[in-house]
Write a structure and sequence with these properties.
The protein is an alpha/beta fold. The protein has three domains: 180 residues, FAD/NAD(P)-binding domain (3-Layer(bba) Sandwich), CATH 3.50.50; 117 residues, D-Amino Acid Oxidase, subunit A, domain 2 (D-Amino Acid Oxidase, Chain A, domain 2); 62 residues, no CATH class. It is built from twelve helices and 19 strands. The strands form four sheets. Strands 6-5-14-15-16-13-17 form a seven-stranded mixed beta sheet, with helices on one face. Helix 1 packs parallel to helix 4. The chain is globular. The termini are far apart. The structure holds flavin-adenine dinucleotide (FAD). The site of flavin-adenine dinucleotide has 36 residues, from helix 1, strand 3, strand 9, strand 17 and helix 7.
Length: 418
């Protein structure tokens, strides 16, 4: 469709986070007339007050995430490539993994401003209108919106509304699956800069109810910086225990204190993220992208990537006769299967096991990986076969595939729900 066509679709994007900006840019490139509505003020975005990440570095997995992020116009450089992990079960007896291929990257933005800010500047340079300090109060599948700006309240209409208004979505009310306390994880942590003693590219993952009930705590060292975060499921935190207590405990662990050495604590991060997948991604004239559709998994490195990818797909679907159908098909092909698999794996390992079972599981993994003692854990031919499959995949360096096989084994061994 040409830019000058009289039949251009009118698209209103709600939210100028990464998903919304990606959606706006893609819809615009596909010939739509696009307007973006954002509740934050422009100034608060420039000054870095944001609802999403504002870390100096961001972890994202998969090489294609880097490609996608570059395609959206970001000037980024990979700071560290993750090729291994050290896992600490509650017993503290750690297990080392080395992976055959990169498992994730720390990416750093070159230049000034947050990623949200950089994207907003791209939108402003194009022929798109962006309204800051303006809130969508209601959106209906027939394309109507109720909007407020200061004391003003007014109505708008769109051919397509893209709801990219984050996890407490207003646009998605009645469409997206409701988000309960059990669907989120709390993340609390800090960034350190300067000389440190951790090995860059080797992530540390700590498990157990004392440090991170239902989730995991991690140390992500790049060359010059270290991110230390502890995450937890709020419903598994004993009443009256402040979330910050878990971070304090983590930072008090002697090997962490030692590893941080003389690096300086430069900023803190706190936030909550959805950890269970959404089920519906649109209805009528509404499409949902990013966290509003629960298509992101920030704790496993799929926050930024999936926000941008789903926004890009939502914006690209506008050119089709039935955008909701097209978008849902794409999402179900490109995002949902992997997202569900990862979320299920996390639930199996972190959410369902007691501390002593985590210890057992890590010993079991160690036995399987080293190929020394599989019989101690597996009582059936099928489980033994799985065990030796994992062992040989690990030996060949296919740790990702080995981990996938491990999930049914963990489920079977610990009689978890399937
Ligand atoms: C502390 C923290 C650290 C993170 N670190 C990483 C990381 O290292 N790597 C990674 O991959 N991911 C990370 N994430 C996750 C990642 O930032 C998010 O998954 C991603 O940014 C979500 O983008 P989004 O556009 O869907 O939502 P958001 O960024 O939440 O954007 C939603 C936008 O909609 C606006 N809005 C909301 N309601 C309305 C309304 N009614 N009307 C108008 N506008 C509205 C908001 O102001 C906001 O600008 C982190 C998240 C947090 C909280």
């Amino acid at each position: 469709m040409s830019r000058t066509s009289m039949n251009r679709k009118k698209v209103i994007v709600v939210g100028a986070g990464l998903a919304g900006c990606a959606a706006a840019l893609s819809a615009y490139e596909n010939g739509s007339s696009v307007e973006v509505i954002e509740s934050r003020t422009r100034r608060s975005i420039i000054e870095g007050e944001t609802t999403s990440f504002e870390a100096l570095q961001n972890l994202t997995q998969d090489g294609d995430a880097l490609e996608l992020i570059s395609k959206m116009g970001f000037d980024i450089e990979p700071e560290a490539t993750y090729i291994g992990a050290r896992i600490y079960p509650p017993s503290g007896k750690h297990l080392d993994f080395r992976l055959g291929r990169p498992h994730g990257y720390f990416i750093r933005r070159r230049g000034e401003g947050s990623m949200d800010h950089q994207m907003i500047e791209r939108i402003e340079r194009a022929d798109m209108k962006i309204e800051f300090g303006t809130r969508v109060e209601r959106a209906t599948p027939d394309g109507r919106l109720t909007i407020s700006k200061g004391d003003d309240r007014f109505e708008m209409r769109a051919d397509i509304i893209i709801g990219a208004d984050g996890r407490s979505t207003t646009v998605g009310k009645g469409i997206a699956s409701p988000l309960y306390g059990k669907d989120i994880a709390i993340g609390i942590g800090c960034h350190f800069k300067g000389p440190h003693g951790f090995e860059p590219g080797i992530a540390q993952c700590w498990l157990g109810s004392k440090l991170c009930p239902g989730e995991y705590s991690y140390v992500l060292p790049s060359r010059e910086e270290v991110t230390v975060v502890t995450t937890m499921r709020p419903h598994m935190v004993p009443k009256g225990t402040p979330y910050a207590r878990y971070l304090e405990r983590f930072l008090e662990i002697p090997s962490i204190r030692e590893g941080l050495g003389s690096s300086r604590r430069i900023c803190d991060v706190f936030g909550s993220v959805p950890v269970t997948p959404g089920r519906r991604f649109g209805k009528g004239r509404i499409l949902l992208a990013g966290e509003s559709a629960r298509l992101t998994d920030p704790l496993l490195g799929f926050g930024i990537k999936n926000a941008i990818l789903s926004g890009h797909l939502a914006g690209s679907s506008i050119a089709h006769v039935d955008p909701v159908k097209e978008y849902t098909t794409w999402i179900n092909e490109r995002i949902v299967p992997d997202l569900r698999k990862r979320m299920r794996a996390r639930e199996t390992i972190m959410d369902s096991l007691e501390d002593h079972q985590i210890d057992q599981m890590v010993s079991m993994i160690e036995a399987v990986i080293s190929g020394t003692d599989p019989d101690a854990f597996f009582d059936s031919r099928r489980r033994k076969a799985l065990g030796s499959g994992i062992w040989s995949l690990t030996r060949k360096g296919y740790a990702g595939q080995a981990m996938k096989l491990l999930i049914p084994l963990v489920r079977a061994n610990f009689s978890l729900k399937t």
